[in-house]
Specification:
It contains 8 helices and 4 strands. The protein has helices at 2-13, 18-31, 74-81, 91-105, 125-131, 134-142, 159-167, 191-196; strands at residues 147-154, 171-174, 181-187, 200-205. A 4-stranded antiparallel β-sheet has the order 2-3-1-4.
């Protein structure tokens, strides 16, 4: 029935006449459809003026951009809350007054933060232990002039990183698959400095 009513209304509205207008209106009311002669009306059934007396209701509103709630004085807040009861043409003045009050009461902007130099943390034993296997870490702590053969895993294999390794005296024996694993030898006294390099990920004995 509802689909039929819609099609019937479309057919009747295509020809303007008093009879068609009455038929369209009746169909719209009977089937609760919006037509050229009927529309939906919102009906409020609550009673808000108990006893027949009008009362003012405070309605929250958005504040102007660039202002804050705590910047408003009690007077400006009262003006904003009474906006609903203000006469026609006064809304613009209320907003202007509220923005002016916010600008006057706003605290000055804070000064820019002072530059603070941060000391970079020194390489700790914990960082060294993260990179060096236990046996390698013990050799690094003992020192000595002898050389040890190690497996070196790198995070960076750029020419600059390889130059840092060469500067420490690391001798490359092989590089399987041309990947990030290097097998070589280095003086035991240089293991601590090796672990401090940012390109080094992990070191184990060969």
């Amino acid at each position: 029935p509802l689909l039929w009513a819609r099609r019937r209304i479309d057919s009747l509205e295509s020809t303007a006449s008093a009879a068609n207008k009455d038929a369209v209106t009746k169909l719209g009311i009977d089937f609760q459809l919006m037509t050229s002669y009927t529309s939906f009306v919102a009906v409020e059934e609550r009673v808000v003026n108990e006893g027949g007396h009008l009362r003012t209701v405070n309605v929250p509103v958005e504040i102007p951009e660039g202002t804050r709630h705590e910047s408003f004085s009690d007077t400006s807040k009262t003006h904003v809350n009474r906006m609903v009861a203000a006469p026609t043409g006064a809304i613009g003045r209320i907003y202007e007054s509220r923005a002016a009050a916010g600008a006057q009461n706003s605290p000055p902007p804070p000064p820019p933060p002072a530059s603070v130099s941060v000391e970079q943390p020194k390489k700790s034993k914990v960082d060294m232990a993260d990179k060096l296997e236990a046996d390698v870490a013990s050799m690094a702590g003992a020192g000595g002039e002898g050389k040890v053969e190690i497996r070196l895993f790198l995070k960076d294999t750029s020419p600059a990183a390889l130059a840092e390794l060469k500067k420490l005296g690391f001798e490359v024996i092989s590089r399987p698959g041309q990947g990030t694993l290097f097998i070589g030898r280095i003086a035991a006294s240089k293991l601590s400095e090796l672990s401090a390099l940012s390109c080094v990920q992990h070191v184990t004995l060969r």
